[in-house]
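Why does residue order matter? Because the sequence determines the fold. Keep that principle in mind as you read this record.
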Amino acid sequence: MSLISSECSESENDSNDERWDDWEEDEENQQNFKCLFCKQLFSTSSNDLFLHCIEYHGFDFQKIRLDLKCSESENDSNDERWDDWEEDEENQQNFKCLFCKQLFSTSSNDLFLHCIEYHGFDFQKIRLDLKLDFYQSIRLINYIRKQVLENSELENVTSYSISEISSVINNDEYLKPVLEEDSLLYAFDNDEIGEDDFNEKINLDRIEDQNQEMLEDINPTTPLEHELFKKLRITEEKLFNTQVQLKKVETQSDEYRNMVKESLFDIYSDSKSEKSVIPNNISGEMTNYYFDSYAKTNIHEEMLKDRVRTGSYRDFIYENKDLFKGKTVLDVGCGTCILSMFAAKAGASQVFSVDKSDIIHRAKEIVKENQLENVITLINSKVEDIDLPVPKVDIIISEWMGYFLLFEGMLGSLIVARDRWLAQDGLLAPSHCHLFLAAIEDDDLINDKFNFWNDVYGFKMTAMKNPVRQNVIVDYVKPHAIITNVITIKEVPLYTIDKFGLDFTSPFTFKVIRDGTIHGFMGYFDTWFTRNRNIDINNNNEKKGKKDEGIIYFTTGPDGTETHWGQTIFILEHGISVECGTIITGSFDCHKNKENPRDLDLKIKYKVIGTGGKDDESKIKEYSQKFYLRNF
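Structure:
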């Protein structure tokens, strides 16, 4: 069959018509772009051609195009090769210059041309010369952004170079975006792909097989047919290679987007423009409700009346006055400034009290009322955004603990403050927390919170049970309700824990201590204050404070005095009938909610193995139930 026979259908040709003109050239000049002035050809992209025109012919085509503000309708009238350098409409967003504050709303090309002309830095040339891949290019962009952020004089630089570029492009530190919404990270590579409208995932193996089958069916007979067949093979191979390149870049870009999305909440800058640990995509309502809630009197009244909570801080500070005398203290989330005033009375020379809530205005009056304004400085801000007049502080105090210890996400702010402001041998108060879990049997709780909906003034309202199953209940559990051993599911060493440790999955094994029914699980936490940061804290719930060692301890568990934290209760959808000795195995998963990291998403998986744990665990059904800890 010849290349031009009727068996080569029109439908087969139609699929390639739109691209044919872009690559149907003679063999030597395949996809080459000719300079507007001289005879030089460019085989990579039109961008290189325009850079050449600037450097050797003094003609800036892209700048002229911008100045004349060519309309979209005018662009549409151009030939099909316009697509080789006209960016996708999806990328019509603001790109910030690598150095100065200028923004470019048309394309990354214009930004890079600007960098050449005004800052003496040719990003695309470096990419080509060093053959940088996608991730190396990302590292280079983030490195420059970080250098400019740390040295504002670089905003006006007219010539820029990197001496140790090999160490930069291979350093994973620079995969972290410096700007939270850096459009350039996802657009710099678009100009070299050449197929902006090609957005689908390509099954490359299938395409290659189909093209090979088509070529095998072609039997050229005349010299012209042989020549055309030769060109067809070349163009088919070139198209396939382009698709491979596109798929590779598309995959790399998706991977990088996902990495940024997952880690953005945890990434914060060490610069003066350090951002909040709350992502920008959270609505204003979500970002404000937390601070607004702490502006109200009732919540501070509840916390101050919690003598276990407030008394523990007071006792540690007053019983260790030698640690506080003459020291600089940072109070993170100061509220009414009660902890700051304890520190001031203990002899601290300077206390910085930080709170974003409007309670700070009443706190200023409280400090003045107690004549401590010469020691205590109040700062109305997130701790992530503050600038202190001192390089480091000696002590950080903070009451950051929420329900189930981690609710409200304030531990992330404490970690930021610790890493940025605490001296190398500085003190944290508190210093250690442990999170515990146990199974419970509590008929009164089930009847009050769950079975109540079976008969409400003679009406069934069982649909109201769903929120009870899903939402964590904060209440008080009697010690006798515990039906298994108590286990530690999370240790929180505050001197060393990092942002990645705030989400966790912990395996568990419970042993039932009496016959009965497991209605759910119960969680609580214990807290230690220590004057020695290297002290070994026993990880069981019977550990008590030893004042002769400078340790103050309190528990929020059922065996201790009730606190405002109570216990967190996870009611199971179906109760579990158990005998003494029954083994329950599973895992507890705790993660920040993706839309509001101050909330928690939790999941409990479990298996009931039986007494002695002798059953074949692989044949036992695993149950899984999700729970949510929300403010509203």
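The longest strand covers residues 516-529.
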